[in-house]
Amino acid sequence: MKILVPVKRVIDYNVKPRVKADGTGVDLANVKMSMNPFDEIAVEEAIRIKEAGKATEIIAVSIGPAKAQETLRTALAMGADRAILVETPDEVGSDVEPLAVAKILKAIADEEQPGLVLLGKQSISDDSNQTGQMLAALMGRPQGTFANTVAVDGDSVEVKREVDGGLETVKLTMPAIVTTDLRLNEPRYASLPNIMKAKKKPLDTKAPADFGVDISPRLTTTNVAEPPVRQAGEKVEDVAALVAKIKEMGIA
Amino acid sequence: MNTLILVEHDNSSAYYASLAVVTAAGKLGDVTALIAGHDCGAVAEAAAQIAGVSKVLKADDAAYANGLAENVAPLIAGLMEGYDAFLAPATTSGKNIAPRVAAHLDVMQISDILSVEGPKTFTRPIYAGNAIATVESSDPKLVITVRGTSFDKAAPEGGSAAIEDASGQGDAGLSSFVSSEIADGGDRPELASAKIIVSGGRALKDSETFDSIINPLADKLGAAIGASRAAVDAGYVPNDYQVGQTGKIVAPEVYIAIGISGAIQHLAGMKDSKVIIAINKDEDAPIFQVADIGLVADLYAAVPELTGALD
Q: What percentage of chain B exceeds 70 in pLDDT?
């Protein structure tokens, strides 16, 4: 069984995004970029499934600018076997929308015939939380979103999902799409020898047109603004002062 | 504009999140509420009472009992013939189903809207709420998820909508529900709808310490209990306690952050709270930059003292 793992290059988790003064977007010039943390978890899970002898090949895919190659090399260094970059124009703030990404992934899945597609539940850039579900719909396959535990068993996969009230388990007939939540696993760091080896692993470059997918956006962003700023209040000296404040406000 | 909204429910009662969706949909046009479930007549009756709902569609089928997206999304896509917009709450259930509907309809979903600016224009948070984007759709139909804390709740009573039956193709044969482990909070209010939330962070050390420090204060205030991602990852509390960018978004009257430093991902989930109170040993903790009232103190002394003083 093959596992397809889509990964996205996003602003690093530890960087505080700054909104550009002209309201056109977030300033990404000279900002550290990394693999979307949820996608890292997806790569790790794919590797674990392969290590358990339940998968034969892991294919990492990224849809993004030429620099997304770095993200794919990270996936290869972690343990993916080969990679596909679907290169899109490098214009800041021009991320391909989830619907178009899902269409490209569908075309790749049609060629590669993976038993599982494992990807992050959302990117930490646009926070859409759509791509996995859309891909599942386009492929006419089941989805296990917000996965906390993934257990492949023959032709099916059981996914324990993180839902608002707690946890829920669903059983999906493969091929299936699984999106990862934070507690599925802790991704490994790539070792230096593996980083060197990853440079020699195959990486194909394609274009959206190769798959006949139109990536023109359906949504237009007309403005990007800072959120309303919350002012810091006051610090109180001790618990007695805090209690007085709380009573004054009528909370207790 | 005719809108169709997904009412989230457990087959016996509707959840709070749906009331905000009624308000958001009402800003676009006429509101039809869909109840997809099994033996869900009581929910349909209740939804018909919500002020602002003009029609209720009830799709009663065993295939819809557990809200499986593979079964529910085609039902909704089929019904969308007669509607211009579909709205769902931005809960785990809404987030699971809505993008699948959008793909069936070949439209781009607008996730987690904060406001309705025009018939096709909305604001939504990006980058963990560090930026607010205004987006306009060019699609013929809209698919939207709604952030519940950003819209007033519609009144649960006062309406008198007619209930009609609806049907789809039922079981798609792709997935099945196995089990759920839903925490029973007892008398404690739910995180999403609580007026007061007491939330604990990594500083609470372990599960026993978390319970012994946080629970008595929450009990005294009749508050729900939340946690930072660090506390959840460390196993102090279950995943459904998590407040933040990837957990729950809350906006209670009062949010009490205990031993939480205030990472941007956590602030993204609670900074719209009316009053924020923070107790932290580190006076430079970022949580103090958003707190209305801050107390720099050792939580092991301060919280029990606070709990004791609130009689």
A: 99
